[in-house]
Amino acid sequence: MNIPIKSSSPSEVLCSNCKACCCRLEVMIISDTGVPEEFILRDQYGGETMKRLDDGWCAALDRETLMCTIYENRPWICREFEMGSYECIDERVKYL
Ligand code: SF4
Ligand code: SF4
Predict the structure, then answer these.
(1) Structural domain boundaries in the chain
(2) Which domain of life, per UniProt (predicted)?
(3) How many CA atoms lie within 13 A of 68 on its CB side?
């Protein structure tokens, strides 16, 4: 998610020409990668997800740069989310 890659063609599917669309998804935290407490939401059963703010984006997203502020500690699901994948393109068409 949101890996900066430079390109001259905005029609290509790249994080650098995206609005961090995938960072609006619900992100479950299923392993300990060191996500800071302030970004974690816990349900009544102890399930953990990334907190989202009223604008819909993950609380850990920098609103100015649209970059992840906890990149080294981002959840496993964020690491696995592949730029250009079906899921990625599916999110982009909703917001771009
Ligand atoms: S939706 Fe795709 S292109 Fe956009 S930030 Fe996520 S992985 Fe990158
Ligand atoms: S932790 Fe980072 S990469 Fe994952 S949804 Fe939040 S801002 Fe995006």
Answers:
(1) 25-82
(2) Bacteria
(3) 22
